[in-house]
Specification:
By secondary structure, the chain is α/β, with parallel strands linked by helices. The chain has one domain (12-211): Vaccinia Virus protein VP39 (Rossmann fold). The protein has six helices and eight strands; from the N terminus they run ααβαβαββαββαββ. Strands 1, 2, 3, 4, 5, 6, 7 and 8 form an eight-stranded mixed β-sheet that branches. The protein starts with 20 loop residues before the first helix and ends with a strand. Bound molecules: S-adenosylmethionine. S-adenosylmethionine is lined by residues 21, 37-38, 65-67, 86-88, 91, 110-112, 128-130, 133-134.
Length: 212
């Protein structure tokens, strides 16, 4: 996977540490572009990956921590049968309000306590800026939780803030190391591709594709 042609302002993904997610979504009212990570359009790494795929069989997608729903809607527009979830009820409420005709099954759910019925149930699992949003102490559990819904032959696509294995983690978002991502192997997922992008301001973003 190459450098996305438009990083949609990834430098704006904030070092945000004080408010909880649902409070933050609720605090902006209808000014959704005030949600710091919201672009209100699909993520370019997802678009680039999708553009390179054949429309073959295997079209069930799970969007993890879907936020305001733009990535889930893009997958549905391309023919995927999509389930999308977030811990924030406010965010899921906005998905339903923004896309009233949507075919996406939007749910409030916790990545760390997913329904058992979702295990190995999806041909594509997409996560964007979620790993870095959950406390570092839970990282191993987050990796396992992201891998669990990937079906045999299915794909996990990860896009996250990146850091060197020995770099200090600092405050939320807690960037993801190559070693963190390597632990998908222990969950039965093989790395298919990996990209390390550096933005103009020097922030690193990783994109990884993993297959069961
Ligand atoms: C940085 S935002 C990214 C949202 C979306 N992926 C995007 O890029 O627009 C992190 C998201 O993770 C959600 N989240 C945090 N903890 C979660 C959990 N345990 N399970 C599911 N979603 C969670 C938050 O509500 C928030 O929507």
């Amino acid at each position: 996977m190459g450098q996305p042609t438009d990083n949609f302002g990834e430098d704006a993904v904030p070092d945000w540490s004080t408010q909880e997610f649902d409070e933050l979504y609720a605090s902006v009212g209808a000014d959704l572009d005030q949600v710091p990570w919201a672009r209100l359009r699909p993520n370019p790494t997802l678009l680039e990956w999708l553009d390179a795929q054949d429309a073959g069989p295997g079209r069930r997608a799970l969007v993890v921590a879907c936020g305001l729903g733009d990535d889930a809607e893009e997958l549905a527009r391309r023919g995927y049968e999509v389930t999308a979830f977030d811990l924030s009820e406010t965010a899921i409420g906005w998905c339903r309000k923004r896309f009233p005709e949507s075919t996406v099954d939007y749910r409030v759910a916790d990545l760390l306590a997913l329904p058992a019925a979702w295990a190995r149930g999806y041909d594509l699992v997409f996560e964007l800026y979620t790993i870095q949003s959950l406390p570092l102490a839970a990282r191993r559990d987050v990796v396992a939780a992201l891998a669990a819904p990937v079906a045999a032959g299915g794909t996990l696509l990860v896009r996250c803030s990146g850091r060197g294995d020995d770099e200090p983690v600092g405050s939320r978002p807690w960037p993801v190391s190559r070693a963190d991502l390597a632990s998908f192997a222990g969950e039965g997922l093989a790395e298919v591709s990996f990209t390390d992008d550096v933005t103009e301001s020097g922030r690193r973003f990783f994109a990884g594709v993993y297959r069961r």
